[in-house]
Design a protein that fits this description.
- The complex is a heterodimer of chains A (about 240) and B (about 260).
- With about 240 residues, chain A is an alpha/beta fold.
- Chain A has one domain: P-loop containing nucleotide triphosphate hydrolases (Rossmann fold), CATH 3.40.50.
- Chain A is about 35% helix and about 25% strand.
- Chain A has a five-stranded parallel sheet with strand order 6-7-8-3-9, sandwiched between helices. Chain A has a four-stranded antiparallel sheet with strand order 2-1-4-5.
- The longest helix of chain A is centred in the C-terminal third of the chain and has 17 residues.
- Chain B has a six-stranded mixed sheet, with helices on both faces. A four-stranded antiparallel sheet of chain B has the order 2-1-4-5, with helices on one face.
- Classes of the chains: A alpha/beta (about 240), B alpha/beta (about 260).
- At the A-B interface, strand 1 and helix 2 of A face helix 7, helix 9 and helix 10 of B.
């Protein structure tokens, strides 16, 4: 728990369903009255099988999906902000300084070199360009992206290389809350070990992490606690 | 100073006879924010842009603009002369077709310098220096400064138009399909340029586009328009990844993946 006693994330009675208007208006309920808490220094791992709403929950916390009801309180500075009812610019502000997110795939922008892709969250946070580039280079090096690739757009990178750029971009700014959606899925064993180490270091710094990892070994190495959404909803 | 929106639009309505151009549009645009307006042809997005940029007279509504000195004016009420002055100093409009935003018979440097002279610059050397600096920023070789825009490719013309718009450091930029009509590779270069300029200069912008990929790259926030009304609004990635309204879902699901 953080010094102030505020949780990092507190989800209350969250419900999210998708209504597919282009496919006959079918409604798919995904999350029902879900409650969950994550504190600073914890790495909470979601253990349910695929299709049970793990990514949906992570995306809802990041403000990417819009829930129907409930609250997602996120500690932003020294107050709790409800993502569900927050204004878009407030969510963007929270993404800049509070919440980091690593997805399974890198969204590549043509022409933007890998080093700038990684430096961008730092610059958005107000770090000067030279500093941001230097820190981006350091984390790319740590993730063993060959230096000759740093100046190139990741468009032509392999899947594993793109995913390591994605992890670098997610971790570079040291956000106090990290949402991880299968960050190690397409990585080989040695890259996976580096990412595991980065997660453990973040945890020790007091970062609150919530994530999904299909690999049981990775789960065992990073988790301080496991949560099943299905059981959390039943409770 | 308490932060407040740069632009506050309320109840903006424009009718063409019986037909609705745009109906009861309301939103706030904050400093540094890029608002995307998406929808298909005829959805009213260009009508909205023209009403905001003063090229069309709406039937009702208000458009409050925060001036540099902190005072707020209703753009629909201010005298024409004051509106023209704001249009020179505080706004810029990037047209879809660069020919509409450039003077084709004037050199590239002249096109950029002219806007500076419009806001009172008189020193030739400084004007030329700034023009050269802006050509470089939009990736036009400096040795083309004396060439006419007609001798430029479409992508270069569009970049020149952007330099002409931004040289006076406007606070609000209107963009009408800024990448329309360009090849994909030229489009990517322009988008990348626009993205960094908007971020570096902390510009506020309203970008009308039917291209959702352009909207995702440039806009922080989206308005989805259909038949003259806003049917959905929200954070750009939320509207595109979890669209709520049937029409937004149709728009997103209709995009072909290359």
């Amino acid at each position: 728990m953080s010094e102030t006693g505020l949780p990092a994330i507190r989800v209350r009675d969250l419900a999210k369903a998708f209504t597919l208007h282009t496919q006959g208006g079918v409604t798919l309920p995904v999350l029902r009255r879900l409650s969950l808490r994550v504190d600073a220094g914890e790495c909470v791992v979601l253990t349910d099988p695929s299709g049970s709403g793990k990514s949906t929950l992570l995306r809802a916390i990041y403000g990417n999906y819009r829930p129907q009801s409930g609250e997602i309180l996120v500690r932003h500075g020294n107050r709790m902000v409800d993502v569900v009812s927050a204004e878009p610019r407030q969510i963007l502000e929270m993404r800049r300084s509070t919440m980091g997110y690593v997805s399974q795939f890198l969204r590549v922008i043509p022409r933007v070199p890998a080093v700038s892709v990684v430096a961008e969250p730092l610059q958005a946070f107000g770090v000067g360009k030279a500093d941001a580039i230097e820190r981006a280079r350091a984390i790319l090096k740590r993730l063993r992206i060959p230096e000759r690739l740093w100046g190139l757009s990741p468009v032509t990178f392999s899947g594993g290389e793109q995913q390591r750029v994605n992890v670098a971009r997610g971790f570079v700014a040291g956000h106090p809350i990290m949402l991880l959606d299968e960050p190690t899925a397409s990585l080989d064993a040695s890259s996976r070990a580096i990412v595991v180490q980065m997660i453990r270091e973040a945890r020790e710094r007091g970062t609150a992490l919530l994530g999904t990892f299909h690999d049981a070994d990775v789960r065992a190495l990073v988790a301080t606690r496991s949560v099943s959404l299905i059981q959390a909803e039943a409770a | 100073m308490i932060p407040r929106p740069l632009l506050s639009v309320r109840g903006l309505t424009k009718r063409y006879g019986q037909r609705v151009g745009c109906l009861d549009i309301g939103f706030d645009l904050w400093p540094g924010e890029v608002l995307g307006v998406v929808g298909e042809s005829g959805s009213g997005k260009t009508t909205l842009l023209h009403c905001l940029s003063g090229r069309l007279e709406p039937n009702s509504g208000s458009v409050s603009f925060s001036q540099r000195d902190g005072s707020v004016v209703d753009l629909l009420q201010v005298p024409e002369a004051a509106r023209r002055r704001l249009a020179r100093t505080d706004w810029a409009l990037v047209h879809q077709n660069p020919r509409d935003g450039l003077r084709m018979g004037v050199s590239a440097g002249g096109n950029v310098g002219e806007r500076l002279m419009g806001v009172g610059a008189r020193h030739y050397g400084q004007i030329r220096g700034q023009a050269l600096d802006w050509l470089e920023q939009v990736e036009i070789p400096q040795d083309r400064v004396d060439d006419l825009p007609v001798e430029f490719s479409g992508g270069m013309q569009q970049r020149l138009q952007i330099a002409r718009c931004l040289v006076t450091r406007p606070r609000l930029v209107f963009m009408d399909e800024p990448t329309g009509g360009l090849d994909a590779s030229v489009q990517a270069r322009l988008l990348d340029l626009l993205r960094s300029l908007v971020a570096d200069l902390h510009l506020s912008a309203i970008v009308v586009t039917h291209d959702l990929a352009v909207a995702r790259l440039l806009a922080h926030r989206l308005l989805v328009m259909k038949d003259g009304e806003v049917v959905e609004s929200g954070l750009t990635d939320q509207v595109l990844d979890d669209p709520q309204h049937p029409y937004s879902q149709l728009l997103v699901s209709s995009v072909l993946q290359p």
